[in-house]
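Before a computer can learn anything about folding, someone has to put a protein's shape into writing. The outcome of that step, for a single protein, is printed below:
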Amino acid sequence: MQRAKGRNIVPTEDPRLHLVWDRDKIYIKPVPMFLLNHDFWTIYLPPSERVPCSKSSPAPSESATIAFDRSVAVGFLRSYSLLMSHRLDFAIAKESHLIPDDVDWLQWSRFICHFRRVGDVAVAKRFHYGQLRLSRLNWAVRIFRPRHAGTMWFYEIPHWSMTEFVAKAMLPLVFVFASVSLVLSSMQVALAVPSEALWSGISEDGLQRLRRAFWVFSIVAVLLWAVVWMLLLGIPLVVLAWQVL
């Protein structure tokens, strides 16, 4: 399904990026080996959602409880049950190194079929949603400023190269430049036409005010274009310097 949408699968070990997509790629976390182990589920992910401990051992801390949250593991595998519902999906996942090499299609089908019937009540809130768009997550970070965000501007930095940033911004800027150039050329032609032929119904004072308005608009357009180019080149330079420092 992801290839049908023109997206490349990018394996990542960062759980924050699981099922986050950006333009032509989607990040997917590979299935850890321990989640395929029955003993691991019995010991660390029991239905009580608590890590068992002996009487002599201290109670698990809050960080340990979060690390062994059953709802997160169940939601993670439920996302895989929805992503890989056919054998072709399984083959693509194996090519992308999302599934361990020693797991075949029959073994995977028997294991994952139980998670397709899991409801939202049994999974973490993150997995109430499916694929999330990176650009919208970046805007959510800028607006709501969550404490766990790595930066104030990005959920995940989308550009690691100034060339890539400029190349993606070039097309809309060229369109705006062509549109403004067309407007300015039309205004110049209108002012070059003799006033008797085009502006017969306008007095000399009105014609002067019109020319002044055209002149102000031209200056403002040039200044705005200069500001846009300064921001286009300045923002990536600042971000690049911030990443390096």
The chain is about 55% helix and 5% strand. The longest helix spans residues 204-244.
